[in-house]
């Protein structure tokens, strides 16, 4: 283990469940925390070859590995894994070296090989035998070849210029076709495994008696280099072989050997006559060096051939863009995350080798994040500044990866990072203070005002509720006067206000969010109670007690504009509701007194006379200017006297004659007039009846004088001092000095 990386070696084909190691012990991790830290293994392989026990940290084989299938012909077979742990986020790199075992036998491309040998060839002539392929590595690959015993042939190993070995069939004794036309040999390829494995292939030698020279290449190994994006038809190399024979036996045709893999034969074409090797299709290979065998065969009746090795180096071009993989992402992230908090783990790979595969990575500068290199090809996305969800609730982070090729290739990937809310904002009221104006005598439960506060946080953190802060107003608890809606901040009156007792007060409403811990703010609400005209003026002077009349004594011969008294009144209301005016509602003598409307001073209009009544009574009305106005009155008795009497007279009857035309007198006059009319009509009726009788008597001779005696007249006289004013007065004639009332009654004697 070194630099956060641990390397394991495991043999291929290891059975499922076999132990490889203990990742917890090897990396110094507490095995009990693996499950809680959500460990996971990440690999680019299509299969999950290994497994970790979440309880013990034991690393075991999950799926047997076939090294030859996984790594083909690579000399070193490696599997790279990343172990990702969260809380906190950690990354460990694991490398598994897959060791080769001798699980593959050598194999020949064909099941049978045929060799045509002219009979006239001399001993020592060589014939190329096919190479066996063994997918195992090193000593487990093909190590030697053997040939079945034969008196005419034996096997020799040859070495090419690159050090590779191949078998040659060597003629050790001249052939005689007439004695034996066909020789059946068995070529055996054996690897160096323990135990070794081998494979056999029949080699059938047909003896010919023509064409005794095989083509010979100028070089045993040809080398070429091409760009990996070379189009079809691009010339790779031209091979050349010569044949010393003449005619058709010396004409050479070129082709790829049967031992060359089929995929390489599809990528390249070789011209049969010129030996030009050209690109046939897309060079879709990951190996930088391709190996092929080119065969040259003459056109003899029994064509002879030879082979040469062609090594083609694929020069990389920058044709792969960087690949960005988001290995781990924490979203949403809390807005109170401290700078340096790991948000995401990114894997950035470029399949190109060398400089073309080196990558630089960056994000926009105007974001509160930065990329921090981690392990090879890994970057951590961390916070570099403070986050505020109320300003920006989420970020589209564009990751730009650019390789160092020429021209460079750029890849971008955008990830969405959501910012989660924390309760970091208290409620804010819409105003610093609120002024509420309410009229007194308001109904119970009347709506007064609505305070409003906002909280930019989300959800419960931004849900605001309202309460009244405990306080007292005029000695009473605030809760007995007001209530506030918990949900919307509406303020209601719980009792009627009285301007005369409480003109203004203030209190505080607290807005609290539902976060944890909760944040709050308070605002002052000023309540101003406006006046209504609900109080009549109160007369402070003069004062009447128990319904009696207040008495003021004025000198008997007081001068004009003499101050009789001053009416003093007060109104508990305010402003125009308390503006008072004074009015004289009644006076026993309207010519004697006048009242100042603004000061309430009652003064004499003229000088007093000896003929004026001694007692007077006035009624003063005090009226405010409310809407509607209210008023109060006071009755003042005025006594004209030079000295203060020992006992005040009764002002219920002032001694003044009652008004002649008051309502009672009018009714009495009408009644007397009616009675008088009826009585006059009755007298008139009697007179008419009497006259009618007289005329009747006169007309029927003479009426006796005694008849007149039947009518009696009576006259009563009353002295004038007993006459009512509304009765008929008769003035005497002659020397009579008194007025008499004559009451006459007429009756029948």
TrEMBL record:
PROSITE patterns reported in the protein's UniProt record: CADHERIN_1, CADHERIN_2
One Gene Ontology term, aspect cellular component: plasma membrane
Pfam families to which the protein is assigned, alphabetical: Cadherin (PF00028), Cadherin_2 (PF08266), Cadherin_C_2 (PF16492)
Keywords, ordered alphabetically: Calcium, Cell adhesion, Cell membrane, Glycoprotein, Membrane, Repeat, Signal, Transmembrane, Transmembrane helix
Family matches, as InterPro entries: Cadherin-like_dom (IPR002126), Cadherin-like_sf (IPR015919), Cadherin_C (IPR032455), Cadherin_CS (IPR020894), Cadherin_N (IPR013164), Protocadherin/Cadherin-CA (IPR050174)
Segments forming domain Cadherin: 9-108, 109-217, 218-324, 325-429, 430-539, 564-651
Membrane topology field: Single-pass type I membrane protein
Gene3D superfamilies: Cadherins
Principal location listed in the UniProt entry: membrane
Span of the signal peptide: none
Coiled-coil portions: none
Keyword RNA-binding attached: no
CDD domains in alphabetical order: Cadherin_repeat
Single Gene Ontology MF annotation: calcium ion binding
Transmembrane segments: 666-689
Family matches, as PANTHER family: CADHERIN-87A, PROTOCADHERIN ALPHA-C1
Biological role: Potential calcium-dependent cell-adhesion protein. May be involved in the establishment and maintenance of specific neuronal connections in the brain.
Protein name: Protocadherin alpha-C1
